[in-house]
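Crash report, auto-generated. Payload:
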Amino acid sequence: MLPRGRPRALGAAALLLLLLLLGFLLFGGDLGCERRKRGGRAGAPGCFPGPLMPRVPPDGRLRRAAALDGDPGAGPGDHNRSDCGPPPPRPSKCELLHVAIVCAGHNSSRDVITLVKSMLFYRKNPLHLHLVTDAVARNILEMLFHTWMVPAVRVSFYNADELKSQVSWIPNKHYSGLYGLMKLVLPSALPAELAHVIVLDTDVTFASDISELWALFAHFSDTQAIGLVENQSDWYLGNLWKNHRPWPALGRGFNTGVILLRLDRLRQAGWEQMWRLTARRELLTLPATSLADQDIFNAVIKEHPGLVQPLPCVWNVQLSDHTLAERCYSAASDLKVIHWNSPKKLQVKNKHVEFFRNFYLTFLEYDGNLLRRELFGCPSQPPPGAEQLQQALAQLDEEDPCFEFRQQQLTVHRVHVTFLPHEPPPPRPHDVTLVAQLSMDRLQMLEALCRHWPGPMSLALYLTDAEAQQFLRFIEASPVLAARQDVAYHVVYREGPLYPVNQLRNVALAQALTPYVFLSDIDFLPAYSLYDYLRASIEQLGLGSQRKAALVVPAFETLHYRFSFPHSKVELLALLDVGALYTFRYHEWPRGHAPTDYARWREAQAPYRVQWAADYEPYVVVPRDCPRYDPRFVGFGWNKVAHIVELDAQEYELLVLPEAFTIHLPHAPSLDISRFRSSPTYRDCLQALKDEFHQDLSRHHGAAALKYLPALQQPQSPARDG
Amino acid sequence: MLPRGRPRALGAAALLLLLLLLGFLLFGGDLGCERRKRGGRAGAPGCFPGPLMPRVPPDGRLRRAAALDGDPGAGPGDHNRSDCGPPPPRPSKCELLHVAIVCAGHNSSRDVITLVKSMLFYRKNPLHLHLVTDAVARNILEMLFHTWMVPAVRVSFYNADELKSQVSWIPNKHYSGLYGLMKLVLPSALPAELAHVIVLDTDVTFASDISELWALFAHFSDTQAIGLVENQSDWYLGNLWKNHRPWPALGRGFNTGVILLRLDRLRQAGWEQMWRLTARRELLTLPATSLADQDIFNAVIKEHPGLVQPLPCVWNVQLSDHTLAERCYSAASDLKVIHWNSPKKLQVKNKHVEFFRNFYLTFLEYDGNLLRRELFGCPSQPPPGAEQLQQALAQLDEEDPCFEFRQQQLTVHRVHVTFLPHEPPPPRPHDVTLVAQLSMDRLQMLEALCRHWPGPMSLALYLTDAEAQQFLRFIEASPVLAARQDVAYHVVYREGPLYPVNQLRNVALAQALTPYVFLSDIDFLPAYSLYDYLRASIEQLGLGSQRKAALVVPAFETLHYRFSFPHSKVELLALLDVGALYTFRYHEWPRGHAPTDYARWREAQAPYRVQWAADYEPYVVVPRDCPRYDPRFVGFGWNKVAHIVELDAQEYELLVLPEAFTIHLPHAPSLDISRFRSSPTYRDCLQALKDEFHQDLSRHHGAAALKYLPALQQPQSPARDG
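Recovered output after restart:
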């Protein structure tokens, strides 16, 4: 333990004597210390003596060069085996560590989650994340952390858009845009009482415990305020090409992907003024920043070298195209943080990129649910809702045959809304979003669906973390899908044995941004004209405003993979007549759609009202504020039926649209269905759910709920899917 | 660096002086050292002074008790933050570490892979695994490591069955059986030149770098030979129930799930005699060992306490039912090794089991391909074949439009044969194994397939590590599947974008153990009688011995999910006549099966010979030593066709069986097909593969290969699947 303010009572002579003695004892006749092995400058010390002899170089230049030339332990706090000194003091067991990240947009939000996963995997301390975000990232990350429920992680959000004006005057050519400059304003943006913070780019991956990095704060001298790793490229040396004129920097300069900031000292030192002055002065001769905040940090440090504490290279191994990082990682035994600081990211050319990519993929595909690990011995405020959840789960009886159902109902799934870039539809009064949910085995439906439905969609996908990456590649590989910015994909991460069909529907429904929604299923292709027709019908019927109604879209099915999709009701009726199409579930479960009254529909010229009947489960268009699906129905069975009961109980009219239709395509039974099809327990549990549903219905609707009682007491074929 | 044999030149007085000085310097006026926080005994030192002052207790008892009572750093080499001393010296960067594991049977082989994954994830040193295995585990693990190709990992196998006689005389009640005792004979079984080894149970999971554990060897005194963690239960204290009489042990005794063995010293000390004498003597009064080797280790240690070096509790956190481990892990900041030492394994009851289970699942589901990471700066002998592979991969042109095909062909997939318990079929001269391959989206076919084919099957499954676990649960949940020990499942781990269909078929084919194989596809259900009928036909026709032939099983298809499977040829023909069945691919690709001559088959009473024709791809029965599938055909298209060409080129007769049939069930197009269906590049690449195939054919068969040239030059519809 080396407390930061320890008295330096002993004189230099005593210290020297001691070190000599210690050296003799430790290394005896056999100098065990591993000297620098490659490319080192003669005389550069290979054994870092640790905090006992802080090596503050006169100008900061020599040491940084040494760090790059193969001495990974060159920084004062390094903890590699090639060091001979003691490791830096680690933060105490439950000390709270603060991390700040600037994050904007859909893609950076995905990146930041991978970074956070790697950090959480190795961390052993409580963390407080300070996220400076735009509205998009905030929407995504707020929901994500809320549903992730990781113990001992606190998250605060700061509005990046409010900070924009402080940096928008700086011309910047870096791909990160304005947000790339925002790290400069952290000392004023973060709470005044916050003194220490680790600042990270979204494109870094941890390979070690962040507390080891935090420990390096202890090595700051009384005036140092910024801990940085040297740049692992020759960028700031200049002359990379003709007229290459970088911003001023000490030697190779520093990389700002990983920063230790003493906010308190920066505030005291007048940081705001300092960087602004420097930036303004440099911008008199330089047209713009090339590397965003990094150029300005380096220019300030060039002027005030006493501010910087150089960090060991392993804390920011930079994988840019012409990286010199190999000098660092070949000598080190431990990489601590990997930084994908090329605009090409994982496609960067580097002979060891496979190694680093594997490392990155580890966390990209890592099941984030597994990070809901408590920190033993560190009491922490549980995440919101976690305590009630724990209590509810604790009350479940593992011997209950429906235990899996109960547990699944209580499961809080991590939700990543708008997983891919998405442009919300422009506000239009009668617009309608197609809402559906799917898992991996239905991805191949998406292209056809996009061809049939040119309007906005909100789709919930039930995926593992690894599948989410496959999904991403699938979209990128499809020109049809990649072109559609009006389709919002919301990833709900898998957990538990039963398919949480209604929870998925609710996520997709909650994220729909138009005033109306078409509640569909992923195996259906709507008529090509349906989107336009629905909007027109909504307007004509005054849906929502004048009339509380659900518009029914009649459902059909084909049993053949290859069939020619009808372009009109006339064509559809012709196919129906020759037996190429059927009304939906005609053979197995006609009750599900019988009330739609297909015979009447054939002839209908205008919308007509139908009455609810038992087991009715039509596909409907309703206002966005319609009742939610009942999340107790997990697995398969009764999930849509219950929703229609609720609509009817709330006195929605059911109006069948005469020109609307949607057609179900064949598919093999999903694994989730097969698993339970043959189980009598499954049927019993479903009946129990239905009973509880009816109790709740009675509570809300009183005697009116009696109407549904017989329907709820009917046994249902377990072979049907939801 | 503290080399093991460093001269101890300084006298005790000098040492003491130095320590005093050092202590003053380090802790100054502010004794930063964190004292033990809970439950500690008064006077027990909370600050471990490190190797400079080894704390060897007089009888070993006190310290072990302290370790359990909340001082995780009590062992001499611990490296927790609550320590104040320097960490133990780590092995040098590229030092080879040796690990021995006893492993027998299918289930332990799966366990050991999870253990190895956790070890590889954190390791930074080259490893040499010494695996003591039965024939089953050796078969699995040899193939696994051969195809895994992890750099800087060497594997040696030792025949457990040859060692059995050395321990089979010991009566043992532990669930691990005879293999549980085998750690006792490691000093003689392992190579004589091997001096240090870490011995692990298959049910441990690493949460840290194994080199930290290896480093603890440096703390052994000159006579210590066995490093162990104290038992975290009261078992050896006795009196857990009436007549509970455990074997003798020091205090709580030691757990042998993690052992540091100085093999050299044990051999010198006459270990073989020592443990046998002790065991024989104890067995005079005790009926059997209860905890296998652990009872004997403890009895020996009780007698020779000088042998044991107690290790810090974090190196073997024991999750048995009544574990006291919480005392260890609540105080520690770092868990190093988790030990699932309850027969219930992950189902053990423990209030923190979710934490530990999450940790275990991390490695269970971890993509093992990501562990093919090189150790930077440690030159090591590449795994067999790795160099050629690297060269071949390096020669590929990333700009080549068929790059993905080339890369996929070269990919060496990790293969885990007989993933689940499997009993080889008894040797029968005309027995036939159904051979097929599948991925996750066809699991639901397995139950039906088992009902249709009562004989042995060899199935290759293309899965991720996480999917392999889902698969395992799927089988366990199905009584039909769980009952079939004659179905061998071989997991081939996913890697790359294209489905390696023929590599999968070859894995399944190579693992078939009967003299004949039925080369089928997973979407087909054979006639109920086919297994018996094939065996009779093989015998009658003298297949293989008298006749070099491939028996053709005519293929049909249904377009409906629900259909009544025909019980005879007569029923089948009736369904065909009413259009409920078709000959296979009748609508899309009749050429594929036209040579089978369905018209003739209708009437046939005896097998008849047919001639090869372009694009023929029947399902056939052949001797097991038939030609392999051509692995160059990855993705979809031409994969079976090429195999039939090869059979014909090798002059196999094609004999159609008059009573045999198999029926294809409908399914949605797989994702792999959809991905490429629309790609013209895909077609071009397939043509390039076909051209290369023909060049090879000409090389092997000379002018006879000319016959196939026109067929190979025909464009093929890209929409067909393999």
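Post-recovery validation: Confidence is low (pLDDT under 50) at residues 1-85, 718-722 of chain B.
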